[in-house]
Amino acid sequence: MPRKPSTPNDQSPSFPYETLEAYLAEVRRLLESRGLRPEWVDELLEGDKNYVGKCFAEKASPLAAAFEIFTTEEEANRVPTEEDTRLKIDVSDQARKHLQHLVGLGLWGENVEAVARALIEQSLAAKLETGLLQPSYPIK
């Protein structure tokens, strides 16, 4: 989980929260207004009680505290995007014309990329059969 800043920079000029409970109630209200279920808000506040306590002690805005808790949880739950492992190659205009002709024949694929993929895979399979390539290589 990413580290939170020591406190939000947004301080209220007048701080109307006399108790930590009143401050927590406002942070809770703000989190629930973002559509979070009450039981999830309870869990978030329990996990961030030291942070919220520090925000209260420094009279930081409950809006800034709630925003920091919400965005930190949102970032932690984001699904990482998969790395694109495709091989991107440039071919000459003549090679592209040949590939386009093969698309027209319809034997290797429905577009230039599919035909190129099929031809590369066929060529690699032929090299495997002749022994020029090994079935597997150590991962470096």
Structure report:
- This protein has 140 residues and is mainly alpha-helical.
- The longest helix has 19 residues.
Keywords:
140 residues; 6 helices; elongated
Secondary structure elements and pairings:
Layout lengths: L19 H14 L4 H10 L1 H9 L4 H15 L16 H13 L6 H19 L10
What is the gist of this entry?
The chain is mainly α and 140 residues long. It has helices at 20-33, 38-47, 49-57, 62-76, 93-105, 112-130.
H and E order: HHHHHH
Return the structural class.
mainly alpha
Strand content: under 5%
- Give the low-confidence spans: none
Counting DSSP E segments of at least 2 residues, the number of strands comes to 0
Radius of gyration: 29 Å
How is the main sheet built? Answer: none
Quickly count the helices. Answer: 6
Shape: elongated
Oligomer: single chain
Helix proportion of residues, in percent?
55-70%
Q: What is the averaged pLDDT score?
A: 83
